[in-house]
Specification:
This protein is mainly β. It is 5% helix and 41% strand. It has one helix and ten strands.
Length: 127
């Protein structure tokens, strides 16, 4: 007999976002990446994007529970990656990027070794 797996409430299945963005749970606050970047940028001019996981509520940073990595995209275009290890660094990253056009919002994924993949987006306009 073949089993069919359906992901509904499993945080390790798929990409997690807060179910209620206005009132995230404690688990969500610990894992949601916070993006600091301008709302508008000039075409082909460098700008900084800062990302912090655990800004809303501190995320553990120990060998058994930590943020493994953070990735930055604009739409589906990869812009940057930062690795972390338990107890060695805090889950913060800064990237200097430039865009020739907006092909989607800034998108950040972070990966917790225990609680899976988390995503946040921020609209950005290229002028």
């Amino acid at each position: 007999m073949e089993k069919t797996w359906i992901c509904t409430e499993d945080i390790l299945c798929g990409v997690n976002e807060p179910k209620d963005k206005a009132s995230p749970t404690e688990l969500e606050k610990k894992h949601i990446p916070v993006i600091e970047a301008p709302d508008r940028v000039k075409k082909d001019e460098p700008f900084e994007v800062r990302i912090e996981v655990g800004k809303l509520l501190a995320h553990p940073n120990e060998p058994g529970h930590f943020i493994e990595w953070i990735e930055l995209y604009c739409g589906d275009t990869f812009l940057g990656h930062a690795n972390f290890s338990g107890g060695a660094s805090f889950p913060k990253a800064s990237f200097t990027v430039k865009l020739s056009h907006a092909h989607g919002p800034l998108k950040v994924w972070d990966k917790c070794n225990l609680h899976g993949l988390w995503e946040t987006t921020k609209e950005i306009k290229v002028e």
